[in-house]
Amino acid sequence: MTKKNALLTGATGFIGAYMLDELMKTKSHAKIFVVIRKVDQFNNPIKRLEEAYGHVLLKVIN
User: Fold this and answer.
1) DSSP letters of the chain?
2) Which Pfam families match (predicted)?
3) Does 60 map to a domain?
4) β-sheet bridge partners, residue 4
5) Number of domains forming the structure of the chain
6) Does residue 29 register a pLDDT over 80?
7) What pTM, to 2 d.p., does this model score?
């Protein structure tokens, strides 16, 4: 079976974080692209993703 790419929006929210975790556990996708809100002085979703998934390849595109 050919692995497919996945696009997930809201990956730092409650449901999105759960879905991202499940997608990463199954390893059934070639790449997982996530869309998150922008970084501001009070919120850094990129840092949260790096802390949670720093053990896997994480590429940030601005």
Assistant:
1) ---EEEEEE-TTSHHHHHHHHHHHHHT-EEEEEEE-PPP-SS--HHHHHHHHHTTS------
2) NAD_binding_4 (PF07993)
3) no
4) 29
5) 1
6) no
7) 0.69
Task: Provide the residue type at 60 as one letter.
Answer: V
Q: What percent of the chain has pLDDT over 90?
A: 2
Q: d(Cα 46, Cα 42) in Å, to the nearest integer? A: 12
Please choose, from the candidates 25, 21, 28, the residue with its C-alpha nearest in 3D space to the C-alpha of residue 6.
28
Question: Which range of residues forms the domain containing residue 35?
Answer: 4-53
CA pair distance 53, 4, nearest whole angstrom: 20
Instruction: Flag whether 23 is in a domain.
Output: yes
Reported confidence tier of residue 15, pLDDT bands at 50, 70, 90: very high
